[in-house]
Amino acid sequence: MRKKNYCRSYIIIISLLMNVPTLAQKIDTIVNRFPSATQQSSTKLTYKIIDVASNTFCYDIYSNGKLLIHQTNIPGLNGNEGFKTKEGAKRVAEFVISKLKKGEIPPTVSIVELKKLKAIR
Fold first, then answer.
1. pLDDT value at position 115?
2. Separation between Cα atoms, residue 111 and residue 76, nearest integer Å
3. Phi, psi angle pair for 79, to nearest 5°
4. Left if phi > 0, otherwise alpha if psi is -120 to 50, otherwise beta: which for 110?
5. Can you give the pLDDT at residue 37?
């Protein structure tokens, strides 16, 4: 009886693990979500400033009118709050668009870059 239970548990665990995407698959999914660098020249990238937690601001980035990035907190920082000003969110959104146009996929933003953009202190 005990062997059967172990065997069933083992089969269930194996079947669950087989359905979990690998890290490579997850990365591939993220990268394929963004247009390639060669496609960027013909892609219209726009942004919209959005209201988020605690009366702060972030942004959505659109590719040919289709939502590409929904950023609801300051990238690279812990927490759920956004930028204190719409201007800070705007500068970072424009910076991310410039990275996308250069083919930087995904377009990460460092704390140093945020400070250079004067989006954070």
1. 95
2. 6
3. 105, 175
4. beta
5. 54
> Which pair of tokens denotes residue 97?
């668009």
Mean pLDDT of successive 10-residue segments in the chain (121 residues)? 59 58 53 56 89 95 96 92 96 96 92 95 85
Closest alpha carbon to 45 in 111, 94, 12: 94
User: To which residue do tokens 């601001």 refer?
Assistant: 57
- 98 Cβ neighbours under 8 A, 6+ residues apart: none
**pTM (two decimals):** 0.68
CA pair distance 57, 74, nearest whole angstrom: 9
Asked if 109 contacts 96 with a C-beta cutoff of 8 angstroms, the reply is yes
What is the structure's pLDDT at 121?
Answer: 85
**Residues 101, 105: Cα–Cα separation, whole Å:** 10
The count of C-alpha atoms lying within 13 angstroms of the C-alpha of 95, restricted to the half-sphere facing its C-beta, is 19
Residue given tokens 């812990």 in the structure block: 78
